[in-house]
């Protein structure tokens, strides 16, 4: 058998995508579709899935199933809240046979703004760049101020992507404003052509709660297997590798790229 080249995807650390988990049956299928797209962009890279809660496999079981060596956790989460700061490090510490690095969450990043804008465009909303346009960016919410700052950063990037259209972050729980509160603030500023952007990787209780709170608005679906989100997952993986001095791989072709 021919030995793998040290830079071949097959010899790289596995990418362990960490989803939150949901009782909504469509959620696991959506995440599986996203990871299928990730694998197609980096053929040969081992990509596995673990969940923080509610779905199989739980993250500790996904880590236990890996052979001894390195692994990189990529949270399919959008801010540095409790799960990223506590649950993922706890699971990594419990996998004694692995050397685990934890990548940054998916937001904020221009690729996330690209995916959000793409899902908004699918709704037929026409407010981008118009004086009456506005967007509510629906997110899960967290009591961690760093998570809230990340949501504001994502909102700013999406606003720039939409030609300066105001984007107000709103939360399903634990933080203010709520989605109706954000809509009221936009309307008070004279914005009438308002849409809802869904900053969720997959359908779930929080995503549904946000959309149901404003049924008259065009509501984008969760991001799922959007090409920009798949590229972002690989970008976060490459960033985590680069922090240890390894050369990053191009997120769409699997070739070498200069680490930033």
From TrEMBL:
Alphabetized UniProt keyword annotations: Lyase, Metal-binding
Pfam family, one: CbiX
CDD domains associated with the record: CbiX_SirB_N
Residues annotated as signal peptide: none
GO molecular function: lyase activity; metal ion binding
Lineage: superkingdom: Bacteria
PANTHER family noted in UniProt: FERROCHELATASE CHE1, SIROHYDROCHLORIN FERROCHELATASE, CHLOROPLASTIC
Name by which UniProt lists this protein: Sirohydrochlorin chelatase
